[in-house]
Design brief:
40% of the residues lie in helices and 14% in strands. It is α/β, with parallel strands linked by helices and 263 residues long. Strands 1-7-6-2-5-3-4 form a 7-stranded mixed sheet. It starts with 25 loop residues before the first helix and ends with a helix.
């Protein structure tokens, strides 16, 4: 089920500022084409590597397979001029916990691997069926949810999420459930917050403006600097999942406002 859309606020207060439409130039098209070519070729090359790496211990496998992400972030900067800066590294806890991250683009699925390692995602099971990409993804121990299973899917997420955390993996959740364009909002689902409350671990909110450079469902990638802000951990002791979720949503959106006001 798709998450509900926030009611319209005619005053515009508290809503992310929509960035002006980007201009598609010849340079943008050429750079995006070169990036797409490199992405496709690297995926084909890394897929057999990922499958063979199943023979390795998990951490060695994770570091090997994530070279694919590192290469494509590098290639993105070379071909499209997309770079990034991060603020709040000091807020990263010493031990793995639950990450609630803004979801505007495919970029953050690659880039967050730099800051939280090793990590697993909570994702829909259908993604594992995508040729090459899905096969490689399956080697990374994701929490792949069958959304048609209802309550069973939620119980699966709690059980597997707790196991992944106990084994030393960060659990990354995109609580909006889908990529949301800049200037739009969707209500945060509570699954990630419930996992954190269930395990007694804090939640780390992560905001970014990746949708400005790598828009949702767009072939074109636009030059610029993506700003990532890792927020202070939100403690779950004495709080309900609803309270934790609301705090994370507010902090992420407030930070996103600040990020975009700089541009």
């Amino acid at each position: 089920m798709r998450p509900a859309v926030e009611p319209e606020d005619s005053s515009g207060a508290g809503r992310p500022r929509r960035r002006a439409e980007r201009t598609v130039t010849a340079g943008v098209v050429v750079g995006s084409s070169l990036f797409a070519l490199g992405l496709a070729c690297s995926t084909i090359v890394f897929t057999p590597v990922a499958l063979v790496s199943m023979l390795l211990p998990y951490r060695a496998r994770w570091h090997l397979v994530t070279q694919w992400s590192r290469f494509n972030l590098f290639w993105l900067s070379v071909t499209c001029g997309v770079r990034s800066v991060v603020e709040g590294i000091e807020n990263v806890p010493a031990e793995p916990t639950v990450i609630l991250a803004k979801h505007e683009s495919a970029w953050e699925t690659l880039a967050l691997q730099r800051y939280f390692a090793p990590q697993v995602w909570v994702l829909k099971r259908e993604l594992l069926r995508i040729p090459f990409f899905g096969w490689g993804l399956a080697t990374m121990r994701p929490i792949a949810i069958d959304r048609s299973a209802g309550l069973g899917a939620f119980e699966q997420m709690l059980e597997q999420g707790a196991e992944r955390l106990a084994s030393g993996c960060w659990v990354v959740v995109f609580p909006e459930g889908t990529r949301v364009p800049p200037g739009e909002r969707r209500r945060f689902k509570q699954g990630g917050a419930r996992l954190a409350v269930h395990t007694g671990l804090p939640v780390v909110p992560v905001a970014h403006n990746a949708g400005d450079c790598w828009p949702r469902n767009s072939f074109c990638k636009y030059p610029g600097t993506i700003r990532v802000v890792i927020g202070e951990p939100i403690e779950t002791a004495g709080r309900t999942a609803q309270e934790v979720n609301r705090l994370a949503e507010q902090r992420i959106h407030d930070t996103l406002e600040r990020i975009r006001e700089r541009d």
